[in-house]
Amino acid sequence: MVMQNLRARPLRSALSIVAVSLQVFLVLLIVGLTSGVLADWGERAEGVGADLMVQPPNSSIFFAFSGAVMPESVCDKIAEVPGVDEEAPVFILVNTGNLNVIYGIDETRFEGLSKGFQFLSGHGLQNPDDVIADDLVAQSMHLRVGKAIRLMNRDFNVAGIVVHGKGARFFISLRQAQDIAGAEKRVSMVYVRSQGNTDATRAALVKALPDKYIVRSMAEYMTLMTSSNLPELKPFIRAFVILGAGISFLVILLTMHTMVLERTREIGILKALGTSRMGILGLIEVEASMMAVVGAMLGLAVTFSAVAILRHSSPTLQIRISSMWVVRAVLMSLAASVLGALYPSYRAAQSDPIEALSYE
Fold first, then answer.
1. Is residue 165 part of a domain?
2. pLDDT tens across 42-68, in order?
3. What whole-number distance in Å separates Cα of residue 90 and Cα of residue 190?
């Protein structure tokens, strides 16, 4: 009976299913984008190979929003601190054309933090106009070794392509980055590798450097790179969750309310045949739940199809959808649909069979 009722009004049922699928799609895509970007940002910072980072005061945990306000001479002070094995200054630029992060680096010191770049093709920074690109941005922008590319309104030559995960998408020489920004002898931050005891080295750095500098361990930084630790993101995600649930609730409410009005006579016949109020209420709720289940499955299919397309067309765009959020999105769609059908089902259950049978 439930399936026949849904088939009797295919367009209305289809619109309700689409509304539920839209809720699932909105929630999962927004959460997947925010989680993916944060996780990718943290993993790239960790992949540099440093144990600690030194930043100027009031710096954002998003390096792209941190200015170059540290004198380069601070590196000499850091190198003298007991427990410091290697330090590498970084000048951070953001290419306004595509918002890709560019690191200005001293290649020897930067590679000294870890095993260095893993080159897929080409070589390091040999000339002032050389740039190294990671494999994801190279795939996205169709780059190859020897190809010219324009960054920060300057022409560069792609000298090498490396495996992603070393902090930025592009790498140029430190001097070139300082020249572009007009900030000679200034750096944005300093990566530090300790000799083994990270906590002791961090304490020594805090003591040796002025109070205004921020010294974070990479472990501490990784804990910060989650949406739960960024209060600014919580209202954003919550707003989309409420919006999606509201869409499902209102569409199901309107659909089931209209169906109840159109089936007043049918409901009267069922009640005359002995169907209880709970039976009528359950029938309406099952119909709404059936549409919610189909809509949720459609939403999941659309979401993961969109993710696959985006990963292929924009490799640098990281989207990560956890199984926990999949379950949450499905449960929210079911809850919104059940609540939306509650009033129409209650009205149907309370209807008088005599009046319902005489309804035209």
1. yes
2. 788 888 889 999 988 777 666 555 555
3. 6
The pLDDT assigned to 121 comes to: 94
CA 172 vs. chain centroid, Å, equals 27
Helices (H), the chain: 2-8, 10-46, 74-80, 107-111, 135-141, 174-181, 198-208, 218-224, 233-262, 264-272, 277-313, 323-340, 342-350, 353-357
Q: How many CA atoms lie within 13 A of 8 on its CB side?
A: 9
Residues 282 and 346 both lie in one domain: yes
Q: Scan for tokens 């739940």, then name that residue.
A: 289
Residue 49 lies in a domain: no
Contact 225/39 with Cβ under 8 angstroms?
A: yes
Range of the domain at 184: 57-212
Same domain, yes or no: 67 and 208: yes
> Are residues 208 and 256 both part of a single domain?
no
Answer with the one of 184, 212, 240 that is the final residue of a domain. 212
Tell me what pLDDT residue 342 has: 76
**Average pLDDT value over all residues in the chain:** 81
Query: Long-range contacts of range 136-144, CB-CB < 8 Å, 24 or more positions apart?
Result: 136/164, 136/169, 136/315, 136/316, 137/100, 137/164, 137/169, 137/170, 137/315, 137/316, 139/315, 140/314, 140/315, 140/316
- How many separate domains does the chain show? 2
pLDDT of 218 over the 60 cut: yes
In this structure, the answer to whether residues 100 and 27 fall within a common structural domain is no
- Separation CA 325–CA 227 (nearest Å): 13
Pair (100, 33) in one structural domain: no
301 falls within a domain? yes
Confidence of residue 359 (pLDDT cuts 50, 70, 90): very low
Check: CB of residue 91 under 8 Å from CB of residue 187.
yes
Rounded CA-CA distance 47/86 in Å is: 15
Residue 189 sits in the same domain as residue 62 = yes
- pTM of the full structure: 0.75
**Nearest by Cα to 24 from 336, 318, 347:** 336
74 and 31 co-located in one domain: no
* 185 in the same domain as 66: yes
How does strand 189-194 pair with strand 52-55?
Answer: antiparallel
Which residues have CB under 8 Å from 59's CB, separation 6+? 66, 189, 214
